[in-house]
Write a structure and sequence with these properties.
Length: 175
């Protein structure tokens, strides 16, 4: 049985999205490596397995939960609080790279507000935007510097500190 004292509130479910059972969640929780979200239904804490998640903005993510595969099925969760199990939160390497773990579910928008630090040049600045108007997506840093958003340049990501360690090619920052 799941007990309230074993849970941490991380957000709230919003509206269903699409017809295949996605539902919005705000704010977007750090879902990398998380397999379950918990929601209280009729005074019982019910775990839901996360099948897929995608960050839409710095305020919203969409999640798809196992066995809830229609718009009607997820309506029961609308406006309900969402929880993580405290014990699950303690597990995991905070310097893992979510881009290499599951590259198809991570949006570059997830990294808005992260500080970019190059191995050789040091701190570059804070990601203030993403330019995906061309095939080569760019981090917009401090509203003026453009850095290629390329998983090959990412050495590690520290989600707790909101930092991305980069290994940029020599001379890239002088362009």
């Amino acid at each position: 049985m799941i007990r309230r004292e074993d849970l941490v509130k991380i957000g709230k479910f919003g509206k269903p999205h699409g017809v295949f059972g996605e539902i919005s969640i705000s704010p977007p929780p750090p879902l990398r490596g998380t397999s379950f979200l918990v929601c209280e239904i009729d005074n019982i804490f019910v775990p839901f397995r996360v099948i897929e998640s995608r960050i839409i903005s710095d305020t919203t993510a969409y999640v798809q939960l196992k066995n809830l595969n229609s718009n009607e099925a997820v309506r029961v969760l609308v406006n309900k609080d969402v929880y993580f199990d405290k014990h699950t939160l303690a597990i995991g390497d905070l310097t893992r790279n979510p881009l290499t773990e599951n590259p198809n579910t991570v949006s570059w928008d997830y990294f808005l507000g992260y500080t970019l630090i190059d191995k050789n040049a040091g701190e570059i600045g804070v990601v203030s935007g993403i330019d995906d108007s061309t095939p080569n997506t760019l981090f917009i840093v401090d509203d003026e510097i453009l850095i290629p958003a390329n998983a090959d340049f990412v050495a590690s990501i520290d989600e707790k500190r909101k930092q991305i360690q980069l290994e940029l090619p020599e001379g890239l920052l002088e362009i």
